[in-house]
Amino acid sequence: MGDPELQDRSERWPVAESHEVWDGGGWVVRLRDDRIRRPGHLEDEPFSRTVLEHPGAAIVLALDDDDRALCLWQYRHPVGATLVQLPAGLLDVDGESPEQVARRELVEEAGYDAREWTHLTSTYSSPGISAELCHYFLARGLTEVGRGDFTPQHEEAEMVVDWVPFADLRAAILDGRVRDAHLAIAVLAADARGLIAP
User: Fold this and answer.
1) How many Å separate Cα 68 from the centre of its chain?
2) Cβ distance 51 to 32 under 8 Å?
3) Rg value, the chain, Cα
4) Catalytic one among 96, 99, 108, 156?
5) Degrees to nearest 5, angle at CA 68 with 163 and 187
6) Most buried among 11, 67, 106, 117, using CB within 10 Å?
7) What gap in Å lies between CA 35 and CA 37, rounded to an integer?
8) Is 156 a catalytic site residue?
9) Beta-carbon count within 10 A of 81 CB
10) Which residue ranges does the chain devote to CATH 3.90.79.10?
11) pLDDT tens profile 115-171
12) Burial letters for 141-173: b for 16+ Cβ neighbours within 10 Å, e otherwise?
């Protein structure tokens, strides 16, 4: 059989039927149930897989000239905790690129713009249930611009924004004090790529 290539590959297994389970209730996500078959086994009974349709997201690791990261402390109801997170948002506007979403979210959530943008990586959040693809960016050359006409609501209205030295943030990830996956991916990717001064 040989060694498989170390690379994801696109493919689609046959879908016998598909139907919507939940229409999103006016939000951008939806649930559907697909009944699929293994390729080459079309005589087998199809099996069910629930799919969360999600537009994807952009996440911003914004660093100032002293390598302090702009962090958000935000309540997240599903996990029953206030998490340390990074500015982030959904790719829910037609025609916006992931970088444009990242730029918009940095302004809306933190009131900053950035001169330099580096794409760190893109990853699937939970491919067993969703095709959500998250795009991670490092932003530097920050300028405070205010939030414009954006008014935070709900959890965002209680959000705290503050600066954390990059080394402290990395240490908090590695010792388990902060557990947001997007935060960990962005910080560890920037560190592994040598984009942060030692």
Assistant:
1) 20
2) yes
3) 20
4) 156
5) 105
6) 106
7) 7
8) yes
9) 12
10) 57-192
11) 999 999 999 999 999 999 999 999 999 999 987 776 766 776 678 999 999 999 999
12) ebeeeeeeeeeeeeeeeebeeeebebeebbebb
Please name the amino acid found at residue 32: R
Residue 98 CA, distance from chain mean position: 10
Return the structure tokens found at 191.
Answer: 């560190």
Yes or no: say if 105 and 62 are a contact pair by the CB < 8 Å rule: no
Report the amino acid identity of residue 148. G
User: How many residues can be counted in the chain?
Assistant: 198
**Is this prediction's pTM over 0.90?**
yes
pLDDT over 70 percentage in the chain? 96
Longest dimension (CA), the chain: 62
CATH class of this structure's domain 57-192: alpha beta
Q: Looking at this protein, which amino acid is placed at residue 73?
A: W
